[in-house]
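Marked as duplicate of an earlier ticket. Keeping the data here for the record.
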Amino acid sequence: MLNNTLIDSLKINDHRAMDELFDLYWEFVFDAAFKKSGNEEVAQDITQEIFISLWENRMAIEITGSLTGYLYGAVKYRVINHFRAEAMRNGHHAELSYLMNLEQAKETDSALLLKDLSQDVEAALNRLPERMRLVVFMSRTQDRSIKEIAAELGISVQTVKNQITAAMKILRENLSYVLFIAFLLS
């Protein structure tokens, strides 16, 4: 079925349409969530939440652009919400709010601060081991899927996942919380 037809069928409670949407897009959603979170369990939870939400809100859903764009946006906001909740638990609510405002602000001072943050992230990335840095570069900059990276580098999918997870852990340790969130939002 075409995406519009699937969405229309979803709106009339067609379980087969939901199954087909899940089959077509679960890997895309999981890969995007894993790239943004660096954590397989979080990515699995986010993927599940997105598809549950899609079913629960099927009657009201209005997708004006592409379905992949809609799903990618859902992943981005679920990841942001995940880190927002984590920030609140860790007492970093003010830092996260400031960062969220930075993304919306278009003033020169904000742009300069974001540039400085970006340079700090770049420096931290350059300190990663060469293979790990390559995997992160391919994932973040070239927007390649985990399977594509594994195939190109001749390594297993699990090794790619392990490299991304390890890189995110190192970045969390080497960067302040705000810099890490800025890296995820880029």
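See parent ticket for discussion. Residues 1-90 form a domain with the Rna Polymerase Sigma Factor; Chain: A fold (CATH 1.10.1740.10).
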